[in-house]
Specification:
alpha+beta; Beta-Lactamase; 6-stranded antiparallel sheet; 4-stranded antiparallel sheet
């Protein structure tokens, strides 16, 4: 490209006109050639009158010559100025394009991780973007605990596999990675005194700390197996990416804390129910386990699992509204008492509707006593009109009730309970849910012995 600059300049009418006007004004015969000696402007037969040859340069390379008399420096200086301006313009355009690409990628990155609430997913996106923008064999995010000790390394080696996650004990030696308090390039790790005594698989590295409100929560490291000279602009880009990573991680960590608090609240509610009814110890946990196993057997989409887990944990929350003399009665219920007990799904809805984040859980709680034949309660819904989470919980809840001791009867054997599910499949229970529950896959997951029947019997 450099060799063709003079030719391109002289191809522009305004440049060619300017050179001609200069030559005419000072009555100056000149000859302008490219670096290979091909004449681009002037008299091809004027060499015998030329006493000077002046080089036109670009970055210490000769890209052309101006031949003429003593005054040909005027043309040479003008041409050199235009060549310099052309290269500066080209360089500025290239730099502007690179900056635009970087800004575009950073904006895209912000959009990708802005709504991401999973720590591992945030790091996966970040390492992918770093690999797109920078040259690296290994990219790693090192995370610290509250005492600034590195406890986890999540790395990407450029393969198509998952990220490699390494957990460390506080104070355990971190090998291969040199972490620095400020963004830094170390182009020769073998010669760095900080690496003495520690084996290094990398030759060159860059490191930028992850900071949240002035507190270092980790580091982003980029390593090269071969020695290389990382430019300052690469470190600046890495620092910008690490800042975005820190913001996204802070959001993900905050979300996870809120999520943990939320689940703790749900567990507390579930435990409150069981404390009111001592005969159902661990009933809630078993119903949750059965329900999630059934969902896997049905191969439900991932988005159903959290809703199902919460609904199963809270399916009996409405029993908080049932009188003790009914809930804790040691014997069969009267018709009037049974009417009272049948209100607990509706009570559950009334309790949960005040919690915004549990709105999607209500159908599983309210309708888990509905029947596929329409003879259930509280609304008498049929078949697919019953939410799938409620149909799953109905099977899980009934099975656990049958296989645990109650004040008024002893637990049924597994085989008898399985046969009851099969007997009422398609009437009381959803046949597909029963079939999934009885499948070998689910039975193995739950650790139950085979019940001796084909899945098709359901």
């Amino acid at each position: 490209m450099a060799k063709a600059v003079i030719k391109k300049l002289l191809a522009k009418p305004e440049v060619l006109t300017l050179v001609r006007e200069i030559c005419q004004a000072v009555r100056l015969p000149v000859c302008i050639c490219d670096c290979e000696g091909t004449m681009l402007f002037g008299d091809p037969y004027g060499d015998q009158f030329f006493s000077r040859t002046i080089s036109i340069n670009s970055e210490d390379n000769v890209i052309g010559t101006v031949k003429g008399g003593e005054d040909c420096t005027i043309v040479a200086s003008t041409l050199q100025y235009m060549v310099n301006a052309e290269f500066e313009r080209t360089a500025l355009g290239r730099e502007t394009l690179e900056k635009y690409r970087e800004i575009s990628m950073l904006c895209d990155l912000g959009a990708k991780i802005g709504s991401c609430m999973d720590k591992k997913e945030v790091i996966k996106i970040i390492t992918g973007e770093i690999r797109t923008m920078l040259t690296a064999d290994i990219i790693a995010v090192l995370l610290c605990d509250d005492n600034d000790a590195i406890i986890e390394i999540i790395s990407d080696d450029g393969s198509d596999g998952d990220l490699l996650i390494t957990s460390l004990e506080p104070g355990e030696l971190v090998e291969n990675f040199l972490v620095t308090a400020a963004p830094e390039i170390v182009n020769d790790l073998t010669a760095d005194s900080r690496c003495t005594g520690s084996p290094q698989i990398f030759s060159s590295m860059m490191c930028a700390p992850l900071k949240i409100q002035e507190k270092t929560v980790g580091y982003v490291c980029v390593g090269s197996l071969d020695k290389r000279e990382y430019p300052a602009r690469d470190l600046k880009l890495l620092t910008t990416l690490s800042d975005q990573t820190a913001v996204a991680l802070e959001k993900a960590l905050l979300y996870n804390r809120l999520k943990e608090t939320f689940f703790a609240m749900v567990r507390t509610l579930a435990e409150t129910i069981e404390k009111r009814d001592p005969y159902t110890g661990n009933h809630t946990k078993r119903v949750v386990d059965y329900s999630l196993a059934i969902a896997e057997g049905l191969e439900l989409p991932e988005e159903y699992f959290l809703r199902l887990e919460l609904a199963a944990a809270l399916h009996d929350i409405g029993k908080l509204g049932v009188r003790d003399d009914v809930l804790l009665k040691n014997g069969p219920l009267t018709n009037e008492e049974f009417v009272q007990m049948k209100r607990h799904p509706t009570y559950g809805e009334e309790i949960l509707k005040h919690i915004k984040h549990l709105k999607d859980v209500i159908p599983g709680v309210k309708f888990h006593h509905e029947r596929c034949d329409g003879k259930g309660y509280p609304l008498g819904l049929k078949g697919d009109a019953i939410d799938i989470t409620a149909r799953i919980i109905a099977v899980a809840d009934s099975f656990d009730a049958m296989t645990t001791d109650r004040p008024y009867r002893k637990a049924l054997s597994l085989d008898v309970a399985f046969n009851e599910l099969i007997k009422f499949s398609g009437t009381q229970f959803d046949s597909a849910v029963v079939k999934a529950f009885l499948s070998a896959q689910v039975q193995e997951k739950l650790g139950m012995r085979a019940h001796g029947r084909s899945n098709t019997d359901a």
